[in-house]
UniProtKB/TrEMBL annotation:
Residues 237-329 form the DHHA1 domain. One of its GO terms (molecular function) is nucleic acid binding. It comes from Elizabethkingia argenteiflava. It comes from the Bacteria. Residues 19-169 form the DDH domain. This is Bifunctional oligoribonuclease/PAP phosphatase NrnA. Pfam families: DHH (PF01368), DHHA1 (PF02272).
């Protein structure tokens, strides 16, 4: 948490006269959108307006969140976003650890003279004016809750704010399953429910949104899951042409990597997907226990993330990428 002195300085900045901006990472997920909107709604209860910016568009299944449609998507609104960032007095950076994770707006933020406040749970954060980084917390949404509590603004957590914070904790813990889910997490969840978050509605609006084409895509990927390293590593992959064939939409492959990890005996799952626009392969890694995919991805795939959930990239072809991956895991993992 921020020191008491930092908290009082930050609190003094959160007033109606200041331009407050909240930004989150590229390919925003439930925790990214949830923490940004959860903070925005709480600030609004304090009489402070904030503008939320994301680098690129986010999946449809997150757009039910209150005011999700007011979020400025930088890839579509470059001029407006440049103007908002230029005028900003305070920029909250949520759910990412380095400006290189937010695309071209990272350079704009680096140049801005605004006060930059990082709240994040990824490994090895860069320097910002104020940093609240804790890798033991399962979701940035939980950190926003702790931050509001430290400001003595728990009463500012409205129903809208509670719904957003609940969503990010639910998605980043894989439905309250992952290792860093704690008793404190559940206490916070209880408080968010009391403030109006509806578990059934949120789970359903977020997760029960499959289209037939997504299930067909999933069945294709599952039909060719490959196990290597004596069944401890699962490999899933998808090519651009296949995505197009199934009428792929943004976010359609979200969560697919977890199916690999659900196989008995598997300690690490890797999902390789050709990017739709650019010529590279986006990789998602998931693992169990102490198998550190953050370090693995940093070492070999130009990425990072958390111990049990990380991402990376490869510039090779799919075939060469899979070969390289197999050869690395044959000597490095487990
Ligand atoms: P996902 O596999 O869901 O895209 O990402 C899993 C986790 O790794 C997320 O916390 C995400 O922020 C992080 N991550 C994903 N891709 C990258 C990357 O290319 N670089 C870094 N540093 N982190 C990533
Ligand atoms: Mn997160």
């Amino acid at each position: 948490m921020f020191t008491p002195l930092e908290l009082s300085t930050i609190k003094n900045l959160l007033i109606p006269e200041k331009e407050i901006v909240i930004v989150t990472h590229y390919n925003p997920d439930g925790d990214a959108v949830g923490s940004s909107l959860g903070l925005k709604h709480a600030l609004k209860m304090q009489g402070v307006e904030a503008t939320v910016i994301v680098p690129n568009d986010f999946p449809k299944f997150l757009k039910w969140m209150p005011e999700a449609r007011q979020i400025l998507v930088a890839e579509f609104r470059r001029k407006k976003v440049a103007e908002v960032l230029h005028n900003a007095d305070v920029i909250f950076c949520l759910d990412f650890n380095t400006l290189s994770r937010i695309g071209f707006i990272g350079e704009w933020i680096a140049r801005s003279s605004a006060v930059k406040i990082l709240i994040d749970h990824h490994q090895m954060p860069d320097a910002f004016d104020y940093v609240y980084s804790d890798t033991s917390v399962p979701a940035t949404c939980q950190m926003i809750y702790h931050f509001l509590e430290a400001l003595e603004w728990q009463d500012k957590i409205s129903k809208d704010s509670a719904e957003c914070l609940y969503t990010g904790i639910m998605t980043d813990t894989g439905g309250f399953r992952f290792r860093s889910t704690s008793g404190i997490t559940h206490h916070i969840i209880a408080n968010l429910i009391e403030k109006g978050a509806d578990p059934a509605q949120i789970a359903s609006d977020t997760w029960d949104t499959n289209s037939i084409s997504r299930l067909h895509l999933l069945s294709l990927i599952l039909s060719r899951v490959e196990l290597v390293k004596e069944g401890q590593v699962a490999i899933l992959w998808l090519k651009r042409a296949e995505m197009k064939q199934f009428g792929f939409e943004k976010g359609a492959t979200e969560g697919f990597v977890n199916y690999g990890l659900s196989i008995q005996g598997v300690k690490m799952s890797a999902f390789f997907m050709e990017d739709l626009q650019e010529d590279f392969i986006k990789i998602s890694f998931r693992s169990k226990d102490d198998l550190d995919v953050n370090q693995f991805s940093r070492n070999y795939f130009n990425g990072g993330g958390h111990i049990n959930a990380a991402g990376g990239r490869s510039e090779l072809s799919m075939e060469d990428t899979l070969e390289r991956f197999k050869s690395i895991v044959s000597s490095e993992i487990c």
